Amino acid sequence: MAYNLCLSIQTKCETINIIEVPIMSLVRYTRPNYQHLSKSFNELMDEFFEPINGRTTDNFTPKVDVRENEQEFELLLEIPGVRKEDIQIELEQDVLYVSGVRKALEETKDTNVHRMEQFYGSFQRSFHLPQGLDKEIVAAQYQNGILRLTIKKHEKAIKKQIVIH
Length: 165
Fold this sequence. Notes:
It contains one helix and nine strands, in the order E-E-H-E-E-E-E-E-E-E. It is mainly beta. It has a domain at 58-102 and 121-158: Sandwich (Immunoglobulin-like). Strands 3-4-9-8 form a four-stranded antiparallel sheet, with no helix packed on it. A three-stranded antiparallel sheet has the order 5-6-7, with no helix packed on it. It has a two-stranded antiparallel ribbon with strand order 1-2. A hairpin with a 4-residue loop joins strand 1 (2-10) and strand 2 (15-24). It is flat. It starts with a strand and ends in a 12-residue tail after the last strand.
């Protein structure tokens, strides 16, 4: 809402013209929400770079979380849809290799695929393990699409509290 300020000055001899000055009211600034624009832009870039980003290739890279506490080192790989018989885990010196294959569902001639966003094919991840781990024993569990690899630390590598006497 805008208001006009009118000013009229009268002297002994003459009247000075009326000056109108617009006065603006204060309006709270709200930031525009570009979230929808960002999402649309990301989808556009994904479609543009589709041949480059691996959607048309026969492999994918599973996501991984790496965790560590005082007793062990842990890797969590997200590989849904992969049977545990199709996963290989190898340890060579200080490098842990995890590989496998996710097989595509069988297509029938009666089915038309309009969009395919799931990745199928082989995968391989390698991890350089830090010093201080007991690499002789690597525990592996696979449940609900998550592969959990646990490696215990050597007793020498575990941080100990020293008591002052």
